[in-house]
Amino acid sequence: MLTRVLPIVFLSLTAALTAAAIEYLPETLHFPVVEYSTPESIRIALFKNGELDRASCELGVGKVAAAIRKGCPGCKVAERCVRGLDAERRKILSREPLSTPSVRMPGGRLTMTFSTSDPQLALGVCQQSELQSASLPVDQRLRCFPALAAR
Amino acid sequence: MTGSMTNGEKIYDALMRLPYVAFQLFFLVRELTGMRTLIAYHPYAGGDWPFVMTIAARVSVVIFLTVLLSFYVSRFRPISKYSSWNPKITALLGTLFMYLLLLTPRAPADAFWDGLSTLLVLVGSITAVLVVVDLGRSLSIMPEARKLVTGGLYRRIRHPLYLAEEIAIIGFYLQFRSWQTLPILAIHFYFQIRRMDWEEGILAKAFPEYAEYKLRTYRLFPRLY
C-alpha cells in the first residue's frame, strides 16, 4: 500500500512545490524598471531580471538611469523598483509576442519595449539597439523583435 | 527505550541533535535562496521546460534534505555505541561530505539531466521513507545500535538506507555534472563504505543474531555486494 502511495505523494509534492515556486517566488523579488522618453517622443521601457533585495534593485536601477541620463541629456527618465510581477510585466519578460517592437537579451535578463506614434520609427530604434549591442559578448547581445513577433 | 530516559537525558539528547539540525537547516535555507536567485534570473519560467525541470530538481533536493532532517529529529537513543573517535569521525565525514557538493556551482539548466536528477532524488527519498518505516526510529548518523531490524527492505540487504541515500546523492550529482566534483562523490562513497563496516561491527557486538543475519544477506545489492 505504502509503496504505491508514496511515489504519488512525492511526485505530487514535487510538482506542486515547483509550480508554487515559479508562481510565487517572483512575488518576493524586486524588479528594476526604467522608463524614458526621448526628445523625438519615443517611449522606451526597460525591464531587468529580479533582485533578491530592494537595495540591490535600487542600486542597479540607479546605475542604468544614470547611464541613460548621461547618454541622452534631453530624455525624461523615471526609474523604480517594483515588487513582484503583474500580468503585464510577466508578459514583457516572457517569450510571448508583444504589441510593440522589443529587444531581448538571451535568457530574458533584459527586455526593452519601444512605443511611438510612428511604428516604423519604433522598429528602427529597436533594430538600432540590436546593432549597437553587436560588439558585446554573445550573452549580452540584444535581439530586436518586431511587434507581434514570437520572441 | 525512550520511556526510561530522565528529563536531564532528554534535554542532553535534544541538545546533541541541535548541531546537525542547524547544519541541515543551513543547507535547506541555502537551497531555497538558490532557487529564489534562479527565479530572479528567469522570472518568465512558465513555458521554459528545461528551466522548469531545473526548479523541480532543486525542489527534490529540498524534499530529500527535509526527509533526512525529520528522520534524524525523531530517532531513538542508542543502546550501544563506539567510544573511540575513529568511527564517529568516519560517520560524520560520510554524512557531511556530500554537502560539499551543494556548495559548488551547478551546471546550466538541462531538461534531460535535471529530469533524471529529479527522478533519482525522488526514488532515493521514497526508498528512504520506506526503509525508515521498517527501521522505526532506530536511525542514526553515528555507528550505534538501537534495535536489530531484519524485516522489510532489510530482509535481503543490510544497508537499504545507505542505498537510498546514494541513489539520491547520484541524483544530486547530476545537477552539478562536473569532473571537479567527482572526487567529492568518490570520497563520500569511501566514507560511507567505512561507515557500513563500523556499523556492522557495533551491531554484531550488540546483537548475537547479527552474525547469522549477515551470512544470509548482501550489503547493498542483492547477489552483487
Number of domains of chain A: 1
Number of helices of chain B: 7
Mean of pLDDT of chain A: 90
Distance between the termini of chain B: 33 Å
Major sheet of chain B: size, sense and barrel closure? 2 strands, antiparallel
CATH classification, class level of chain B = Mainly Alpha
Oligomer: heterodimer
Distance between the termini of chain A: 48 Å
Number of strands of chain A: 6
**Fraction of residues in H or I helices of chain B:** 55-70%
Number of domains of chain B: 1
Largest interface (CB within 8 Å) is between:
A-B, 30 and 29 residues
Question: In a nutshell, what does this entry contain?
Answer:
The complex is a heterodimer of chains A (151) and B (225). Chain A is of the alpha+beta class and 151 residues long.
Overview of the structural elements:
The complex is a heterodimer of chains A (151) and B (225). Chain A is α+β, with helices and mostly antiparallel strands and 151 residues long. Chain A has helices at 2-24, 54-71, 87-93, 119-132, and strands at 30-37, 43-48, 76-83, 102-104, 110-115, 143-145. Chain A has a six-stranded antiparallel sheet with strand order 3-1-2-5-4-6, sandwiched between helices. In chain A, 30% of the residues are buried. The model of chain A has no long low-confidence stretch (mean pLDDT 90). Chain B is mostly helical and 225 residues long. Chain B has one domain (2-215): Four Helix Bundle (Hemerythrin (Met), subunit A), CATH 1.20.120.1630. Chain B has helices at 7-41, 49-73, 85-102, 111-135, 160-174, 182-206, 210-215; strands at 80-81, 144-145. The radius of gyration of chain B is 19 Å and the shape is globular. Chain A binds chain B through residues 2-3, 6-7, 10-11, 13-15, 17-18, 21-22, 25-26, 28-29, 31, 49-52, 85, 90, 93-95, 107-109, and chain B through 33, 35-37, 39-48, 52, 55-56, 58-60, 62-63, 118, 122, 125-126, 129-130, 133.
